[in-house]
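SAMPLE LOG
Freezer: B-3
Tube label: C17
Construct: single chain, 72 aa
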Amino acid sequence: MTDQHNPKEHANGNAEKDPDDWVTGDEPMTGAQASYLKTLSEEAQGEFDDELSKAEASKRIDALQEKTGRGK
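STRUCTURE (predicted):
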C-alpha cells in the first residue's frame, strides 16, 4: 500500500510549489538556474543579475520563458 502523504510516491503533487513558499528560496540560485537565466537574459536582450536567490531566479526564468517563448 502506498502512503498518500509521501512526496516520493506523488512527486508531481509538489512540482508546482510557489517559489515564495520554498524553504530554501532565499539561498543563492543554483548553477543550473544561473546558466539558464543567463541564456534567457541574452535571448530577451535583458540584464542578467547573478545575485538573485533561488526563488527570485525561478520567477525571473518564468517571466523570460514567457517573453522568449521557451520552456513551458
